[in-house]
Amino acid sequence: SLCYREGLRNEKVDVNPALLVRHRQESGGRLRYLTREEYARLYEVIQRRFLEHLAEFVFSVPSGAPLSEQYRILWPMVDIVRRTVRTARAKSNRRVIEGRTILLNAESIEAVESMRQRKHKPNDPVFPREGDKARFDTRSWFVPCLEEAGITDYVWHSNRHTFCSWLAMAGATTKEIQEAAGHKTAAMADRYSHLSPAHKSSV
């Protein structure tokens, strides 16, 4: 359609036949998530092979934080008493993304506390970058662990899908999933509704 539109603009064609093609809704993307058994298997492999990265994985699943958000968390943003992390504003594709509050459960608090035991400055990131790398990268240790655990078609971002899927299976509403994950629209959270017991009952 874009090619024909440019052709019209440059007077190379007279009509845009692509306008007659009915648009189809795009797929919502991969919704791969871990089962509890897969999570336990992957946890064991990371604990054995890359213990220094275990807290990053443990925090990622029950917090639902995207990779870039998780690795930008600084110590002043963490409030253990209130069991929250208040993220800072960020820019993405020229858009300003407002900060949000991440709620922490016992597992994610334990992961944060384990990182506190390491030497760090007051304003350091909770989960520092690996070595001298300029960007956040979990592939060097996460991918080998996935392979050993026999888990396929799974990437780090899928931890966020695991978070949302487990909430849905526990009976969380679409609104609750949207708020917990920080989704901009209810439609993004609605992708997990088929996993909820209430949805299955209604069907």
Could you characterize what this model shows?
There is one protein chain. With 203 residues, the chain is mainly α. The two termini are 40 Å apart. It is globular, with a radius of gyration of 21 Å. A hairpin with a 4-residue loop joins strand 1 (78-79) and strand 2 (84-86). The protein is built from ten helices and five strands, in the order H-H-H-H-E-E-E-E-E-H-H-H-H-H-H. 44% of the residues lie in helices and 7% in strands.
Q: Topology, pairings included?
A:
Blueprint: H1 2-9, H2 36-49, H3 54-63, H4 67-70, E1 78-79, E2 84-86, E3 90-92, E4 95-97, E5 101-103, H5 106-116, H6 139-149, H7 158-169, H8 174-181, H9 186-190, H10 197-202
Antiparallel strand pairs: 1-2, 2-5, 3-4
Name the shape in a single word: globular
Extended strand count: 5
Structural class: mainly alpha
Distance between the termini: 40 Å
Poorly predicted ranges (pLDDT <50, ≥5 residues)? none
Rg measurement, Å: 21 Å
State which percent range the strand residues make up.
5-15%
The strand order across the widest sheet is: 1-2-5
Task: Give me the number of helical elements.
Answer: 10
Biggest β-sheet: count, sense, barrel? 3 strands, antiparallel
Fraction of helical residues:
40-55%
Pattern of helices and strands: HHHHEEEEEHHHHHH
Average per-residue pLDDT, rounded, comes to 87
